[in-house]
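Issue: ligand-bound run for beta-D-mannopyranose - logging full I/O for the record.

Environment: standard queue, default settings, no custom constraints.

Inputs:
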Amino acid sequence: MNDQITTKTIAIPWQEKPAETTDVIWRYSNNPIIKRDAIPTSNSVFNSAVVPFEDGYAGVFRCDNKAVQMDIFAGFSKDGINWDINHQPIEFEAGNTQMIDSDYKYDPRVTFIEDRYWITWCNGYHGPTIGIGYTFDFKEFFQCENAFLPFNRNGVLFPEKINGKYAMLSRPSDNGHTPFGDIYISYSPDIKYWGEHRCVMKASPFEDSAWQCTKIGAGSVPILTDEGWLMIYHGVINTCNGFRYSMGAAILDKENPDKVKFRTQPYLLSPQTTYECMGDVPNVVFPCATLHSIDEDKIAIYYGAADTVVGLAFGHISEIVKFTKENSL
Ligand code: BMA
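Outputs:
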């Protein structure tokens, strides 16, 4: 197996597809890239988000500490593989509101829009809802109004305005380990006030595609392709051993992303390796970010594994799009 990471000026992390692989995405051979004890206080580092930043990459990492308090931490990397994560959690100043209450923060996503990096996360405010903040430099952070009422999770912003408005995917939920969940889209003129809520995609019928029959949630920031918005998402089946989280892809209409054009019937990646099947919550792959290059036709998908560590998987965008079209529900 080729262990070399190709480097160019801010080339995305990459490893060629192993000859024996027939799947459209494949795991990095040195997974997990971030271990559970990446910082001295961490019990686990998992569902986390990365973006290109300056001459390398920056990220926002979910680190649960040894009291299992959930918070988000900034981190930096030159190559997207080796990360230095700050030992202190992000401290937010007031952004577009003074009300920045937060009992906990987890499962961040990061989206660059126009002039700044927007961070969305699951924010504890009388239960889980979608927190939003921004930074220009990953040093100072500003927290805005929560996007929605509790209960909601998996808020993911589109990287550009759609029809003149900010757009966000989310997954209304309950206060616990939610046994249901569909993906909605909401729009905002200013990031503060959200409305025009539309259903995008529901959990699938058991008999059609059981890996995503209990609940689904948006994963990484949607990527604009010739076919529409490519969205990597997670799907869950409730088994006799509890929830099992896998990863799939959907293509949403460019102008009206509440229209699903295609959606994978088979999963793209399911928990199969030791670090995905063993950990604090076994059998979880949970995508939260990608680094990608449309020109080079490459994508690197960052995902939490077993709620314990961070894994990385690679693919060719054109192959994922083709696979999604040819194997659509
Ligand atoms: C979800 C969230 C995720 C977690 C997943 C599996 O409800 O809490 O953070 O990865 O469950 O435990």
